[in-house]
Design a protein that fits this description.
heterodimer, A: 98 residues, Ubiquitin-like (UB roll), five-stranded mixed sheet, 23% helix, B: 386 residues, mainly beta, Methylamine Dehydrogenase, Chain H, four-stranded antiparallel sheet, 1% helix
């Protein structure tokens, strides 16, 4: 079971509280996690990555296990603690006032 | 405040009527409801709190169906649809892909810049099909959904007009902000873009022609420029559809021939800069604007919030001030933030950058705030319910 933490605005859009838990088949990568997330919550399509290019939106970052994974290859395996569910995969929006 | 149900608790057997005001703000959407008197209001909790709501508009074909453009610099574009008059909402499709290879327009510095989708500025529901809705977007393009918002297809003829590569954005972005579906001529659509100008299609959006003859804009070297005009808003009365009223960046304009030519009607306005323009529901010659000091001072002149009304289709204007602040007021009113209802005593509504939404239940003679402390208002629409 993969654990995903969404930023507050996306939790509201997906109508979830707390972490999201996902089943991901095969190698656990950022792409496979985001594919599973969007399959379970279609309203999140386009809010994290561009629907045409698949590129991460500019003000969104990905973290896990105290690492910034935002610039890793989308198909690179995620750290083992994420794949086992020991650690969550964090989707983070840039901080800003206003 | 009384709730909506209480507001409508009319004497049994007497037809009820009322209004639903749909307000988009920098930090959410609000639904304001009242009966036909429009003196007591129910104010909803914020919908989509924290998100920018550029526009909320109801379907004329099914007033329970309401559309909202929800966007965020972080998370992009979401389209929300309500099928119960704005009480509950569900997200629908949000994929806005330009048709083919988008090409370039001009950037602020005059260099080519790729067409990039930013947000939906305006949603225009079909007059007769609740599943069909048009979307005006930044960078300027016109999209349409015919399946209740699940899928969106561009009508590329507008963006691919031969003048498209020369279009440039206004300071707020290159937005398609006005869509008018002509009520009398099948297939006729008007669209307006900042800062490309006004366009008309007579074949349901397949092909377009600029309709900007008579517009003159400071900063455009060619006095007969076909495009490049910063049109802020166009309004039409359904009973006289060939007459169009325009608030341009500077100048208030009128066309009597469906946009083929324009002439200025600014008359005695204190300033002819502004954003919204609207038409009385029952009198095609009565129009409203909110003059703003200038394009460098985006607030009302002299600290006074004044709506100006012309009963003569322009040129002769009177200030409407009763109930509006006449000192120390420095708000702006944006292009989509004025609306009229169609009750017998026509109601006029507008929202400000200071978060006030005002109503006049007597065509502008007297005003009162419905709410004073919303986030900055981006859009105001009203549905007349019966």
């Amino acid at each position: 079971m993969i654990r995903v933490v969404l930023p507050a605005h996306l939790r509201a859009l997906a109508r979830v509280d707390g972490e999201v838990e996902l089943q991901v088949a095969g190698t656990v990568t950022q792409q496979s996690v985001l594919d599973a997330l969007e399959a379970s919550f279609p309203m999140l399509r386009g809010t994290i990555r561009d629907q045409d290019s698949g590129r991460r939106r500019a003000f969104v970052r990905f973290f896990a296990c105290e690492q910034d994974l935002s610039h890793e290859q989308p198909d690179a395996p995620l750290p083992e603690p994420v794949a086992t569910g020991a650690e969550p995969y964090l989707i983070v929006g840039a901080m800003a006032g206003g | 405040m009384a709730g909506w149900a209480e507001c409508l608790a009319a004497v049994e057997g007497v037809p009820v009527s009322g209004v639903r005001v749909l307000v988009g703000t920098r930090k959410g959407a609000f639904v304001l409801t009242s009966d036909g008197k429009r003196d007591q209001w129910a104010v909803s909790q914020p919908h989509f709190p924290g998100w920018e709501i550029y526009h909320v508009k109801g379907s004329p074909a099914n007033p329970d169906r309401v559309w909202a453009s929800q966007s965020s610099g972080w998370f992009g574009q979401v389209i929300q649809r309500s099928d119960d008059g704005g009480a509950t909402w569900a997200p629908v499709g949000n994929k806005f892909s330009y048709d083919g290879t988008p090409g370039t327009h001009l950037w602020y510095d005059g260099t080519p810049h790729p067409w990039e989708f930013a947000r939906v500025w305006h949603l225009e529901p079909s007059r007769d099909d609740p599943d069909t809705v048009y979307a005006g977007v930044e960078d300027a393009g016109l999209f349409r959904s015919t399946d209740g918002g699940q899928q969106w297809q561009e009508l590329p003829g507008l963006r691919m007009h031969k003048s498209g590569p020369s279009w440039q954005p206004g300071a707020g972005g290159m937005c398609l902000h006005t869509i008018i579906l002509d009520p009398a001529t099948p297939g006729r659509i008007y669209a307006a873009i900042s800062a490309a100008g006004a366009f008309r299609s007579d074949d349901a959006g397949e092909t377009w022609q600029p309709v900007n003859h008579g517009l003159h804009s400071e900063g455009i070297p060619d006095p007969d420029a076909e495009v490049g005009h910063c049109v802020h808003r166009i309004a039409q009365h359904p009973a006289r559809p060939s007459v169009l009223y325009m608030q341009k960046h500077w100048d208030v304009m009128r066309s009597d021939d469906a946009g083929d030519s324009w002439h200025e009607i600014s008359g005695n306005l204190p300033t002819d800069f502004g954003f919204p323009i609207d038409v009385h529901a029952h009198d095609p010659q009565t129009i409203y604007v909110v003059p703003i000091t200038s394009d460098s001072h985006h607030f009302v002149p002299e600290g006074k919030l004044r709506v100006y009304r012309s009963r003569t289709g322009g040129d002769e204007w009177e200030a409407l001030t009763n109930g509006l602040p006449q000192q120390n007021c420095y708000v702006n009113v944006l292009r989509d933030a004025m609306a009229v209802d169609s009750l017998d005593d026509c109601g006029i509504y507008f929202g400000t950058s200071g978060g006030q939404v005002y109503v006049s239940a007597d065509a502008g003679d007297n005003w009162t705030p419905i709410v004073r402390d919303l986030p900055a208002v981006l859009s105001v629409e009203v549905q007349t319910l019966s």
